[in-house]
Amino acid sequence: MIKPHTQIKRIFIExxxxxxxxxxxxxxNLGSVPVEVISDxxxxxxxxxxFKDPVGEGKRALLLKPLKGDFIKPxxxxxxxxxxxxxxxxxxxxxxxxxxxxxxQHYLDNPVMVSHxxxxxxxxxxxRFIFKHKSRFIRIGTGELGDSLALDGITERSKEFIAxxxxxxxxxxxxxxxxxxxxxxxxxxxxxxxxIAWSLNTEIMAEKEEKGAPxxxxxxxxxxxxxxxxxxxxxxxxxLILYEGWAQxxxxxxxxxxSRIDPSAIAWISIGSLRFPKPLKTLIRKRFPLTKIxxxxxxxxxxxxxxxxxxxxxxxxxxxxxxxxxxxxKKVPLYFCMESNEIWREILDKEPGSKEEVExxxxxxxxxxxx
Amino acid sequence: MRFTQIDPSKIDTEDKRFQxxxxxxxxxxxxxxRKTGLLNPPVLTKREGKYVVVSGWRRIFACIQQSIPSIxxxxxxxxKDLEAFNVPLFENLTIRDYxxxxxxxxxxxxxxxxxxxxxxxxxxLPLLKAPPRREIMDVYIKIDRLGDSIKETAHKKKWPxxxxxxxxxxxxxxxxxxxxxxxxxxLNKQKELIESLFDISRKRDVSAQKILSSGEFLKVHKDVSLxxxxxxxxxxxxxxxxxxxxxxxxxxxxxxxxxxxxxPEEIAVIPSKFFEDEVxxxxxxxxxxxxxxxxxxxxxxxxxxxxxxxxxxPFSHD
Lengths: 371, 318
Description:
The complex is a heterodimer of chains A (371) and B (318).
Chain A: H1 4-7, E1 10-14, H2 21-30, E2 35-38, H3 41-49, H4 54-58, E3 61-65, E4 72-74, E5 87-89, E6 92-93, E7 98-99, H5 104-107, E8 113-116, H6 119-132, E9 138-141, H7 152-155, H8 157-165, E10 171-177, H9 183-186, E11 194-199, H10 203-209, E12 210-211, H11 216-228, E13 232-240, H12 246-260, E14 266-273, E15 275-276, H13 278-287, E16 298-300, E17 306-308, H14 310-326, E18 334-336, H15 341-348, H16 355-362
Parallel strand pairs in A: 1-2, 1-3, 3-8, 5-9, 9-10, 10-11, 11-13, 13-14, 14-18
Antiparallel strand pairs in A: 4-5, 6-8, 7-12, 15-17, 16-17
Helix pairs in contact in A: 11-12, 12-14, 14-15
Chain B: E1 2-6, H1 30-36, E2 43-47, E3 50-55, H2 57-65, E4 71-76, H3 81-95, H4 100-112, H5 117-127, H6 134-144, H7 148-156, H8 161-169, H9 172-182, H10 187-204, H11 208-212, H12 215-222, H13 228-243, H14 245-260, E5 267-270, E6 281-284, H15 289-303, H16 307-312
Parallel strand pairs in B: 2-4
Antiparallel strand pairs in B: 1-4, 2-3, 5-6
């Protein structure tokens, strides 16, 4: 399990950032970790580019700085496949866990973990964003460019987010994690529009490919506790990974999931298969020489990324959906992450046609009530 | 720097410490040397009492080949190799882009001459139009240590960084087994072959030698009726089939269905790339309106055949 307090060996703080209360709180919570004041993020990037493994080294460092641009962005999804109109809040970037398949290794220019400490700007931007979209449902979360709860022990952001979004009933706010860092959440009063989500995989994949992440059974236990507190939960079977014995292993996880979690408290389950930009393959090969996951039958998808050959994906999805439906999740809303209309139709017998329709379906608007 | 005349045969051309290109052709230079002589003096320096070439390898070899008794040269007084090396490095940078092999040579030599990794990354990699990262420097140093024959081929054929990087990840024995096939292929196929074999090797935990000396690969290797290019093409195709077994099965199934439809040469059915889309393309080659009408009728006839639905739903075979 990740304990950022002990893993972070170095803190960088951008000049002028001491004035932010969150920066001061984090420095206090991190105790005696050495702090270096820098004038520009580029200094850190240049420094870490000198390391043999900048990504690995970056997981032991934290940069505190204000975000000068927008906190809220549409989820980038991927071209030529169906999105879900999700919005992401970029508060903390990067992650102390080291999953072999993680896109962030390639996606982020800066390999160190970054916390954007100008929270007043965040709330102001959120107010404006929600007002602008007041006529519709919104799904938004913090777990896209980093784990939502990995640093929660030192940031305590989850408390503030829950307090903020509790009243915003047309917004479904999601905290997405692999960790067991739920102490702050368990202290809060639940609300229907606050969803705590876990990324799940098979135990063997978690052990081999998700370095530093807790066992899957423990994640399910954490979800059970959160659900027992009254929160809605969600799960992301993403990335699904093909290997010998995958079908039984995924069935086992889904069986365990539904033996602990009440399906009616599950807001959604997303499904996606392993996919990544081509340059990431080289990086994975170098950083994780023992991994075999990049040697399965992957082709170049319509978005230029590597993904499993379609018949293999169909087989994978069919098995997962069958397991979810038969082990207790008959009515749980399921959706695909970055898949084609054909896959939706073939596996879920739905063809949303647009990301707005996916969003409507997941927000339980009348026209797409889950059946 | 001193300007002087020397006999080019007295230059120690075996000392290649400052040489960046692994090989070069002097053919295009000969007519110019014959007609106007050497206009641009090469740069030399002295090491252990001998003249060594700092820059101007092609000019010197062209003059030696033409048996010119004396040529104008600049002689550098610089005793530090690292400093002297900046001359050919910057001289070449102003006139052309380096190949990946040359970039590797530059990086390897800078490293060998004692330049700090920090300077190589920050100062030199951007000059070479390479990302200023440690991992890139490390790969270039490994590329520079590849065998001469690989480097020469890679330089001449301008192999991309990714292909060379993969080559460095094989061991020397594996490279020796692979190289005779790789060098015969086009750039794309070179990369595909190296990558496919690499992936198969890693997935099964077997060496390239073992893959290439078993089953169908061995048959191709032993087939004396095939030319080196034909062998390389077959090895490439076998490697792709092993690397992508399901895709190969689907491709073959699609091909078989379309063949069974007995299409005229002018009509071709083409699946989407990697069967990722449901859509298939039908290509029609016509010379005139009459042809068009004829084949439109033919297409109507085809649409009534049962095989056509198999083409539209190839996954129904699963």
